[in-house]
Amino acid sequence: MSITPVRELHDLSLSNETKTIKYNLVQVKGTWTRKKQKAQRQTKNERVSSAEIHECSRERGTTWTVVSPIVFTYQVMQIQKLLDPSNDALLTGHIRDPRQLELFRCNPRPIKRFVVMDETVFKLYGCQVTDYFDSRGVLYRILPLATTEENKSMEKVMTILGEVHKFGIDRRTEPIIAIGGGVCLDIVGLAASLYRRRTPYIRVPTTLLSYIDASVGAKAGVNFANCKNKLGTYIPPVAALLDRSFIQTLPRRHISNGLAEMLKMALMKHRGLFELLEQHGQYLLDSKFQSNGVDLSPVAAVTTKAAIESMLEELAPNLWEDSLDRLVDFGHLISPELEMKVLPVLLHGEAVNIDMAFMVYVARERGLLSEGEKLRIVRCMLALELPVWHGDCTLALVQRALADRLKHSGGLVRMPLPTGLGCAEIFNNTDNGTLCQAYEKWCNELGPEPSLSILISSGHV
Q: Does residue 218 contact residue 315 with C-beta atoms inside 8 Å?
């Protein structure tokens, strides 16, 4: 069976040698049958699918083209006191249909939940999670796992699948719950997408980076062949439950790590968010995004909301990456190779920021940014305590990473670059000379012996 574009089908139907018939699919008493579109008259006992079958007959045989729209609906929910036993969100937050919710509450069967927790998160919150489930009479199994970039592998996925199989869950009504950072959410998401071909799962991010990035999209995956996220799927969670209170137990470096992804969205499409980070970045680092009643407390809520909304705007229309032109790839052209090369020296957001810092110099070299805009961006990065240069990010690594992207992105480099503060475009025509000049200036100004003017003005020397 081949997949033929609709326009081609139309052209074929005009040919004297072919005949194309379009059918809708109608279900009556559990059986699906085809009905010609023009002849279709729906009765009250019929269910009409959004899928179609196009049949094209030729002398050499028949071709059937299946047009089957696939729709995923999932919720990203900001929630307070998620682990409070009086809060239903962890058990019912993924149920959107009021009738299904009523059926769930009336079901006499005990609730079952399989939970995977990052082992560090388990040490901090494991007792609260067990108290929550015990108080609600839930049959549960909690699997603490060491989930780091170094062991983000299919072996971890298989460990989870083995434990899920032993515990036993309903493939439609008992979602797997992942509680942890981005690596944990990625591994569990891949395991859930493989178990019985697709088992629902819920993401509960506990780091800033996963709160605004890993939890809100559809991708899940693991590293393979020393390449970042080489194996994976596009299956979103049924819900992502975001409780900012988890962030308060993060080390300061991990707060900064998450701020890199927030800054990415600010530079690409949200000038207001950039200005908030520029003005209040230190406060967000110091307060760990917690609201404590002071005048600036709304900043944490405003910045996280803006980052998530801008991320969803870019992800939702392109959930399966049918288009490879993605602004959210800013900071992700060079960073995967750099991150894997120096693992575990750099956190993900740190590698992303080094990539972004270099690309800011590329944008300046191309005349897309003014010198003042470039300096503002670099100063903001430094104020957020993010690295802006690394010795292992050599020109050879940059060229190799971009060549690899060219190979896997349809023959185009698809380079997102800022064209101002909070706006960007995707470029395919950055020549090697521009890259080399940008790299030289980047190293001279931010490298091992940086130009003092930038660092003095930002207070970092």
A: yes
